[in-house]
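Annotated sample (chain length 378).
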Amino acid sequence: MNKYLDSIISIRDKVTDKSIYYKTITIDPIVAKYSNTNTPIYKLVIDGNPISRNNTLVIKYTCITCKAQQEITLNLYIRKINKEGTNCVLCVNQDENKRMKHSNFMIENSKEIIKGTYINTDNSKKSLNFDDYLELSSTSWMNEDDDFKNQYFLKHLTIDDFERIRPFIIGIGNEKIKDISEWKYFPYYRIWNQTRYTPIIINPLMKTIDKLKYITFECQNCSSHFINRDIEIQKNHIKIFCKDCSFSNRTFSIKNIVLKNGNKILWQSIPERRFIEWCDENNIAIKNGPTIEYFFENNAHKYKVDFELPTDKLLLEIKDNHIWHKNQVASGKFSKKEECAKKWCVEHNYKYILAFPKTMSKLKELLLKKTPILEDIV
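Output written by the structure step:
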């Protein structure tokens, strides 16, 4: 990369027309955050900061081939580096191979160009109808070697992968498509860039395709809806969980139980499961509590209260004095949770109760007697 660095004379911002001053400048291979191939491309790094494509910089440089001074945008200069180009706009047109190629092209196609009947091969591919283009994609895929196919499916979903998660897809394209029953997954749609293929969904009846972006899923645990930008995020996941359930499940192994009325409720400790079963046996309405936002140490957090007893107007949190709870009490985080829960209760005419195994029998007794429950029972 030294030849490209050494050829740079100056850098300026074309908007302000001011020169850019720097202490260090390098050209480094960097993998873009949302790259489909994870292939690094060269980027200019100024004082340790990679310059993105969204910039207004202009490079003045000396052509490596003809030594003429030229000025082009940084993006064009980086493209030249990634293609290992050494010619500027002046000397590239003096290249004998290019001139010969262009001359032969005009000799072969001049009649069609003059008549207006010349067809660009790239455009002819784009003009194929729906079925023909799918056939072209399938044929092209069949001609790929096994190593390429195996590497491709390390990242992208196979048809079996897609069918496994299909029942939990609520919508595609920010729910632009809400019913995907008529749509089929097509894993290797031919495109004409370095990735060569991309997964899409097709509707054979409507003869249309759509991208698999911004997928809305239903969490298998809490039934809430959440969005993933790319469907590949779920490729190696056994279960489709939202962010909160995924985090909690890794820590506490959240499970669910189905009540007599068919409703699903989540639990993560034996005392919680036993209390749910007791409520169900005694016909006491119970469901998972609300998620309430609170602030702790200048950061926003969400507190998912364990249970709500709507008939008794109670929010209930069950704790077992494990180390997680003790640490939150010591740090002051749990007091912030209680504060936001009690505020929610005031707004909804509820009462917030914190219960431990040793106080559960008293709580159950009061619930059966329909006696007002006071906070001091815990």
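Annotation: The first helix runs from residue 2 to 6.
Annotation: The mean pLDDT is 86.
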